[in-house]
Design a protein that fits this description.
By secondary structure, this protein is mainly β. Helix content is about 10%, strand content about 35%. Strand 3 and strand 4 form a beta hairpin.
């Protein structure tokens, strides 16, 4: 059943298999199950750590170097107006009233979350607000890209007027990083 679900999720996207590295990159696959309020951390590529850090209604995707606290994925767009794909929150998967699945009335990322990261974030690359040029994001993406796929999950019960939160989530993430 889980394999069938994964195949259906991936078939809905035209941008290739869930984990492939570009030229000069290496790919790592990490999978796990996380429960509300818990954090998840797994090293990859001999120098980075993939984290899911708890936030109020779910988790935030964080990439760190072992010796730094900086979130190297923090320059993943979009930065304004809609939820960032790094923030995985239960309410993204419910309608505006929180009474049924998201019917499109909530503009939020769904089961596939793509993000970019680089060790230069916070060193030679900074967020410049609305003046941040697209070339900055491209430079970050040239170093590292991630794709988290939510395989299965459970949310808090629907309660009209409330915001749903995750109870648990099963996921797989592909991380492609320059060698």
């Amino acid at each position: 059943m889980l394999l069938l679900l994964l195949l259906l999720v991936l078939a809905a996207f035209d941008d290739g298999p869930p984990c492939e590295a570009g030229i000069g990159q290496q790919a790592s696959v990490i999978s796990g199950l996380i429960v509300a309020g818990d954090s998840f951390a797994q090293p990859f590529a001999n120098r980075f750590i993939f984290h899911l850090s708890p936030i109020e209604k779910g988790w935030e995707i964080v990439i760190r170097e072992a010796d730094r606290e900086e979130n190297l994925a923090r320059l993943t767009p979009p930065w304004h107006f809609v939820p960032n794909p790094r923030h995985i929150e239960g309410w993204h998967f419910r309608n505006v009233d929180n009474t049924a699945p998201n019917d499109g009335s909530v503009n939020a990322p769904q089961r596939v979350r793509e993000f970019v990261f680089s060790p230069e974030v916070g060193r030679t690359i900074e967020y410049l607000g609305s003046a941040t040029p697209d070339t900055i994001v491209a430079r970050v993406a040239e170093f590292g890209r991630g794709r988290l796929v939510i395989l299965d999950y459970e949310l808090t019960p629907p309660l009209e007027g409330e915001r749903a939160a995750f109870l648990w989530m099963k996921f797989e993430v592909c991380l492609a990083v320059r060698r």
